């Protein structure tokens, strides 16, 4: 087991829009950064080429010889047991052997893969709103809804790196079909595009030629638009049901919510906390706190490094600055 506090982890945060990379130290600081757009509509080799460019840029940094491992947080599904990824928004990658490809380009360093929701969870537990909590659910509510779990003080990834994927818990048994194949999933109700879709379907009207995003719906809700407010309240209800189910199952202390939709602030959090009282009713679940995430857009990189550090026994326990 390494305890080399001078060591770094090379982190990759891979999504449908961008591939971000950084060298991360044991305080969660991003010492060197690199980024490329994701060629999401191209073939597998072209997408991997962009990842390789990010790695090559990091490897040119003077600090690269201090790198002990590579941590990857990727849009999913991922399969950490096989080292493969099949991101929904990168159709050229289906069961793509990302871990082997990165290991080859990183000089044989150990590589740890987790889903992007798990990476965000690792970051928030290490440096953010879940710091100091032994049991937590962290969620990304954005274009989709993802998440991850901390249990007994450690990141709980599950065998394939997807544990805590709360977006595909069904909270409406006869609800709308979800693209995942199930019905009434949290994501089908609470994601940004679904909040906007429902608001439009029930009478919200954006400014002519205007913004149809969840952020625009949030602004309308703050201004008193009934359909916009109702859509956020429905999303809050779905999130509350999912959080309560998780609290009942594994006894979490806190639910941390990040992602673009969390930027709505009290438009989301006020009804969410209120509805949580309706669902988290048992004594051991009723005390769960709901907090906004703190780390923002760097969470994926910080969390990919933290996940690798935990799995490989680097910086144990991680220190925080």
Automatic annotation (TrEMBL):
What Pfam families is this protein classified in? Answer: ROK (PF00480)
Record-linked InterPro entries: ATPase_NBD (IPR043129), ROK (IPR000600), ROK_cs (IPR049874)
Task: Write out the similarity annotation.
Answer: Belongs to the ROK (NagC/XylR) family.
Q: What is this protein called?
A: ROK family protein
Lineage at the top is: Bacteria, Bacillati, Actinomycetota, Actinomycetes, Kitasatosporales
């Amino acid at each position: 087991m390494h305890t080399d506090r001078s060591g770094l982890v090379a982190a990759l945060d891979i999504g449908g829009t961008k591939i971000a990379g950084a060298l991360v130290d044991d305080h969660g600081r991003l010492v060197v950064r690199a980024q490329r757009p994701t060629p999401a509509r191209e073939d597998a080799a072209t997408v991997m080429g962009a990842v390789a460019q990010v790695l090559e840029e990091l490897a040119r940094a003077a600090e690269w010889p201090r790198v002990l491992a590579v941590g990857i947080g990727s849009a999913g599904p991922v399969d950490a047991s096989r080292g493969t990824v099949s991101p929904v928004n990168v159709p050229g990658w289906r069961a793509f052997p990302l871990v082997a490809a990165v290991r080859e380009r990183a000089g044989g360093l150990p590589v740890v893969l987790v889903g992007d929701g798990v990476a965000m969870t690792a970051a928030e537990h290490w440096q953010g709103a879940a710091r100091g909590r032994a049991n937590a659910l962290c969620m990304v509510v954005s274009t989709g809804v993802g998440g991850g779990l901390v249990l007994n003080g450690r990141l709980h990834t599950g065998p394939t790196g997807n544990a805590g994927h709360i977006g595909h818990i069904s909270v409406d048994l006869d609800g709308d079909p979800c693209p995942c194949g199930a019905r009434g999933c949290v994501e089908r109700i609470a994601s940004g595009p679904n909040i906007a879709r429902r608001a439009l379907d029930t009478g919200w009207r954006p400014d002519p030629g205007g913004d149809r995003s969840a952020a625009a719906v949030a602004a309308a809700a703050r201004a008193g638009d009934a359909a916009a407010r109702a859509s956020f309240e429905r999303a809050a209800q779905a999130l509350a049901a999912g959080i309560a189910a998780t609290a009942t199952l594994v006894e979490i202390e806190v639910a941390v919510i990040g992602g673009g939709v969390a930027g709505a602030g009290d438009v989301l959090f006020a009804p969410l906390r209120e509805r949580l009282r309706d669902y988290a009713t048992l004594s051991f679940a009723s005390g769960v706190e709901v907090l906004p995430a703190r780390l923002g857009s760097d969470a994926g990189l910080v969390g990919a490094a933290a996940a690798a550090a935990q799995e490989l026994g680097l910086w144990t326990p991680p220190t925080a600055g």
